Amino acid sequence: MERSLRLEGHISAEDVRRSPYLYLPVPVPPRASRLHVSYGYSEPVTAPFGMGPGNTVDIGIFDPRGHDFIHAAGFRGWSGSARREFFIAPHEATPGYIRGPLIPGDWQLLLGIERVNPDGVRYDVTVNMTVDERDPSAAETETVHAGPIQAQNKGRSRPGGHPTGRWLKGDLHCHTVHSDGLNTVEEIVDSAVERGLDFLAVTDHNTNTHHEELARLSHLPITLIPGEEVTTYWGHANMWGLREWIDFRCADAESMQAVQRFVLQKGGLISVNHPKSVGPPWLFEGWRGYPCLEVWHAPWRFYNWESLERWDDMLRGGEQVVAVGGSDVHSIPPKRPMHPHGLGNPCTWVYAQGGPSEESILQGIREGHVFISDDPKGAQLILTADADGDGKFEKTMGDTVEAAEGQRVSFRVWTNGGMDRRLWLICDGLPLDVIPLDRSEATHSFSLELSGRSYVRAELRGFRGRADRGEVIWAMTNPIFLKTTA
Ligand SMILES: [Zn+2]
Ligand SMILES: [Zn+2]
């Protein structure tokens, strides 16, 4: 038997200012075998990139096990505004939604109002349920028991791991059909392998239903890192390394802080994404203490100077935030191109101890042993230091070098993409030196007295196309931090 429910209403701009989230209870009877939801709303935004006037209403759903902030045991999926309908059934569901038993009781549809016109927005939701009318005792035997709905996917490492550390290259940010991307998880992962990446984090918006597919592809010669791009109406943040769903319903710095505690306590890692005006930007100014910042998002010319400036400001203020890169790819061939770049643009290089594994890569990032390059085949750039003057350059990006007042410390920058480009050395946000390079592989040495200085980092800059468009960054390092001892 089909049961149908229609939910209509109006949300004022004032309601949205109080909270951008609205819950609509949906009573699900016993023996429901399929839940289908479709929705629409007044005056949707039509201009590209969400420009111009109009409304944007996102959608998701919780089952009766609960929708409490952070500890919402009933999370069953989210599709943002990427789809106008979805379904959940015991053995299948729309990507982004969790298949499994349709637990009877009050489900909560979640509407998220990303944008609202001054006169508010009208919504119209239709819920269709298929209810099994067989004798309840017969149906009982077919009940799919509530329990761990998602397959658990424990840390795995790539076969043939190396016993010592090595540089691994990858991409920390991309999307699939599980949110607003156009490709399947398999297509995205195949493309990452083809492009020679050693690791890939798949970070769909506000859901974790792609993790199970990553586990299924774990035999491929690439380390797959489960992620979620926590997508709030005040900015986006990537969370890597957790299997469970991470709450995104944050509307202030305190709730972001609570999500951060949850993720870090469980051993995950966090990056604030695309902190630039076209990001969408990062507006949780009061939230601090996150470990990473996506300083390089998509090709450099996409406003990344802005993010770089923000990062230098943080470093100058003493926040040791690790710069990472992410392509934010939403489509690759054969699907319709949504942007002019692919996975690994940019490419994040991580020094992983003990061979490639999810944990060694996340640990390398945590320690800041990271540089970023425009492409997997692009320039590499490595900054090291000899802290004790023994001729061995044992300190690298992310490390801290200590030296006594007045003592000089030697540094070395190595690159293999230097031809006709310039090496910029940056100390405390200001250029220390600019060195023109005339060959591809080059090593530049310099020394510094540390007193009063707090970090040094390197960039490889050069033209891309016409000189009047100015330089771009081809590769950049994380800083070596400097400390003067008494
Ligand atoms: Zn984003
Ligand atoms: Zn993204």
Describe the structure.
This protein is mostly beta strands and 486 residues long. The protein has three domains: 2-133, Jelly Rolls; 160-377, TIM Barrel, CATH 3.20.20.140; 379-486, Immunoglobulin-like, CATH 2.60.40.10. The protein has helices at residues 13-18, 136-140, 185-194, 211-216, 253-265, 304-316, 358-366, and strands at 2-11, 21-28, 32-41, 56-62, 75-80, 85-88, 105-115, 121-131, 166-171, 199-205, 223-232, 235-240, 269-272, 292-297, 322-326, 347-352, 370-373, 381-386, 395-396, 400-404, 408-415, 422-427, 430-436, 442-449, 455-463, 471-477, 480-485. The strands form four sheets. It has a 15-stranded mixed beta sheet that branches. A four-stranded antiparallel beta sheet has the order 1-8-3-6. A four-stranded antiparallel beta sheet has the order 2-7-4-5, with no helix packed on it. Strand 14, helix 6 and strand 15 (322-326) form a beta-alpha-beta unit. The longest helix has 13 residues, at 253-265. The model is unreliable at 138-163 (pLDDT under 50). The site of one zinc ion has 4 residues, from loops.
